[in-house]
Amino acid sequence: MAKKTELNSRERRAAERAAAGIQTSTPRKPFINTEEIRTAIVPVIEEFGCVLESLNAKGSGKNRTLEIVIDYTEERTDFLSLDTIAEVSQGISAVLDQANDGEEPYLLEVSSPGATRALTERRHWKRSLNRLLNIELTDGEPFLARLDEVLEEGVKIRRKKQTKKGQPESYKDQETLPWDSISSANVEIEFNH
């Protein structure tokens, strides 16, 4: 599946400076070895039937934060509960406390990706079955569609029709979108589904 690349403002300024031949500073090294942390915490996360989405060490001095984003495996379509996040956080904290030999303290943040996160991996799509998605194709405008099935070659969807206010939702015939035709997609929040 094609992945849309967007630069944040810091990355954009750095690219502009580099294009102008201006010397840029070297990126800061994380305050902690994230690969060692990843190796230590993945077994804890898996005990709860979850996967590690991302791991980011940022800040310096007293403002150091270790951000960990977790989610359920692709077999589950429900959202992570706050109780589960708290339990995983306690497990991760215990492992990190054992590995922390006199290092300066840092803030641990454990969270879920959120309801409207970008669908960038096949397991994200599988976790979004039967949900309404906002999809943008590589050659077209964005549209809303109901996700029916995730296949090796792509996804089966039904595009949502425009209906007047008060009328029930209706959808066009099912179609298959190949992975390489999808530029971006995310879950659309539904309040009355």
From TrEMBL:
Residues 1-27, 158-177 are annotated as: Disordered. It comes from the Bacteria. GO terms for cellular component: cytosol. GO terms for biological process: ribosomal small subunit assembly; translation. Its main location: cytoplasm. It is found in: Cytoplasm. Residues 41-115 form the Ribosome maturation factor RimP N-terminal domain. Residues 119-191 form the Ribosome maturation factor RimP C-terminal domain. Keywords: Cytoplasm, Ribosome biogenesis. Residues 1-16, 166-175 have a biased composition (Basic and acidic residues). It holds the Pfam family DUF150_C. PANTHER family: RIBOSOME MATURATION FACTOR RIMP. Belongs to the RimP family. Required for maturation of 30S ribosomal subunits. This is Ribosome maturation factor RimP. It comes from Rothia amarae. The lineage of its organism: Bacteria, Bacillati, Actinomycetota, Actinomycetes, Micrococcales. The gene is rimP.
